[in-house]
Structure formats: C-alpha cells, structure tokens
From TrEMBL:
Sequence intervals crossing the membrane: 6-24, 126-147
InterPro entries with a match to the protein in the record: DUF3592
One Pfam short name: DUF3592
Positions of the DUF3592 domain: 34-123
Protein name: DUF3592 domain-containing protein
Keywords (A to Z) from UniProt: Membrane, Transmembrane, Transmembrane helix
Length: 166
C-alpha cells in the first residue's frame, strides 16, 4: 500500500513540475551571453562493485540584461525547474558545451516578477515526464500486487475486514 502512495506522490510532483515548466512559456524574453562554458567530470565510487564510474555535466553560465531596467543578472539554469543534468553520457554534455561556447549570444527567458529566475529552454524538460511516468508505473505495479494479494474477489476480502460486534 505504501508504494501506491509513493507512486502517487511522484506522479503529483511530476505533474506540478511540468505545470511550472509550461508556465515559463509566458516568461519574458531577452538576450544574454555565455560567460562560462565548461565540461565538469566527477568520479562516482561504487563500493558494492569495488569500482566506479565517471559522470559529466555541462557547466554553463550566462549573463542577461533586463531591457526596461537595464539590470544585468547571471544564471546557470538550462530549464526553469530541475537541478543538475549530470549523467554518464559524456557526448551529450560535450554537445551542450560545444553549442553554448564562451561569448555566444543566446535567447534568455526570465520571470517578469522575479528577474533573477531565468533559463534557456522552456516547456521542453523531458526529465520531468520521466518522473510523471515513473509515478504512474509504481502506482500501477503496486495496485496490481495489492489486487493479487487480496485474491480474485477483492470485495469479499474487504467485507471480511468489517468487524461485527456480537
């Protein structure tokens, strides 16, 4: 039963984050420049297997200008929600780094009510959809196990749980 709640929580979280991501489509646009473009590499230890693996992350920082106020801000967010996109796929992060080279001019989306919140891509964070479908999958598997454990006639099992006082 706990897995149904875990799946439901993941589903709701994924749904809310997708709404936030899509809401960023209404943010204002401005221009900015890439001021830092690096590929970070970390070694992750795997004690159980006696080894490890490398993970990679494109470390991109850009500055952008708010036209009406002429203020300058910095951000490292690619998407409006979500944290680091660290993974073992070096080529993917190298492609991001190579596309967003130092000095390149980019379109920046910023929150009109909080100019410090900005990103380069809105409404396209597929990682959030993975969270949504993971929640659905866990709920489905947990519900299937729950139905199987209660037998072929779940109504009978629930009726048996009613306590009658004599």
């Amino acid at each position: 039963m706990i897995f149904i709640y875990i799946g439901l929580a993941l589903f709701i979280l994924g749904f809310l984050l997708i709404l936030i991501d899509n809401n960023a489509k209404n943010w204002e646009e401005t221009y900015g420049y890439i001021i830092k473009s690096e590929l970070n590499q970390s070694y992750e230890h795997n004690i159980e297997e006696g080894g490890g693996y490398y993970t990679y992350e494109a470390n991109i920082v850009y500055e952008y200008f708010i036209p009406k106020t002429n203020h300058k801000y910095e951000s490292s967010k690619i998407f409006p929600v979500g944290g680091s996109l660290r993974s073992t796929n070096k080529q993917e992060h190298l492609s991001i780094k190579n596309k967003l080279t130092l000095g390149k001019k980019v379109i920046v989306y910023y929150n009109p009510y909080n100019h410090k919140k900005a990103c380069l891509v809105v409404g396209k964070n597929f990682h959030l959809k993975i969270l949504l479908f993971l929640g659905l999958t866990i709920m489905g598997i947990a519900a299937g196990i729950q139905i199987k454990e209660t037998g072929q006639n779940p109504e009978k099992t629930f009726i048996d749980k009613i306590e009658v006082i004599k």
